[in-house]
Amino acid sequence: MKVVVCSEPGRLEITDRPRPAAPAEGRVRLAVRQVGICGTDYHIFEGKHPFLEYPRVMGHEISATVIEAGPGSRLDPGMLVVVNPYISCGSCIACRRGKPNCCTAIRVLGVHTDGAFCEEILMPEQNLYPANGLSPEAAATVEFLAIGAHAVRRSGVAPGARSLVIGAGPIGLGTAIFSRIAGHEVTLLDTSAERLGFAANELGFSGGLLAGEGLEKAVAQATDGDGFDVVFDATGNATSMERSFAHVAHGGTLVFVSVVKNDIRFSDPEFHKRETTLVASRNATREDFDHVIASIGSGLVPVDRLVTHRTTLDQAVHDLPRWAHDKAGLVKAVITVNAA
């Protein structure tokens, strides 16, 4: 089968590998239909991922069709499924507590093990969720949207709250969408007027704040001087994460949706004075995937506007390097692998 491999930083190659073997019990052989290109994939291509071994087949935002399943499967050939790319051990303390998203031995497709920039993959059945009427392209957006949905659920913040989402990239936009679905009054903050314009014109988020001089005053004006009830930082930038504490209202919640390798420092007196709740949000669980699938099906998520760039498996070796350096107008790119 055809496979796109990142053989080393800055180099993508199309090669040929054997198709997966017939699945054993609990496993399913899949034809990849669509696969989204994530920020992680760009980082892998650029050699910026700190914990990755090359060569690597990237790709973890996946929709696929069942080819064959192991004995006793509930999945039928031809069924379209969403793939949860977080393969957990099932026995560690996190898994025993129903949190496989932070399994101590987690393996993520396309990062710790080869992913879906290929024609077929073999997956545990427990990681496959029926797409319930979604198109293959819409189904391929579920994983990245589930990151934001999980962060909103982790916040535990009730409807009516003032919400600030920092970072208007794909993860931030997904977080903003699910914050809105949760009934929050959502404001976006970004360094890019272009991204804020996209959020306003295409997604209906009118309350955009541009980072820079005067931001503190703008936050005060947007919240009657109180600060935001909940702040989601989806930037993956240590400086932004440290500054985000100042935007939280007294008694409010700060959620770190992204992760950085750096240490994060903050003022302990301010943290205690505000009795801030600080929350980490990692990956997503089936509950979040199901919520996203239902929300797309209900028309609450404009996936047709989020997918701005499209390519094929053959052309991905040319397009992904170009998009890694030129992200003008880019929100989410999707690769068509098997059209039908």
From TrEMBL:
Annotated ranges, domain Alcohol dehydrogenase-like N-terminal: 25-131
Query: Lineage of this protein's species?
Result: Bacteria, Pseudomonadati, Pseudomonadota, Alphaproteobacteria, Hyphomicrobiales
Tell me the superkingdom of the source.
Answer: Bacteria
* CDD domains named in the record: Zn_ADH7 (cd08261)
- Pfam assignment, any one: ADH_zinc_N
What keyword terms does UniProt attach to this protein?
A: Oxidoreductase
EC assignment: the record states 1.1.1.-
Q: Name one GO molecular function term.
A: oxidoreductase activity
Q: What is this protein's record name?
A: Putative L-galactonate oxidoreductase YjjN
Where the record annotates domain Alcohol dehydrogenase-like C-terminal, the positions are: 170-294
Enzyme class, one word? oxidoreductase
Supply the InterPro entries for this chain. Answer: ADH-like_C, ADH-like_N, GroES-like_sf, NAD(P)-bd_dom_sf, Zn_alcohol_dh
- Carries keyword Oxidoreductase? yes
Q: Does the keyword Transmembrane helix apply?
A: no
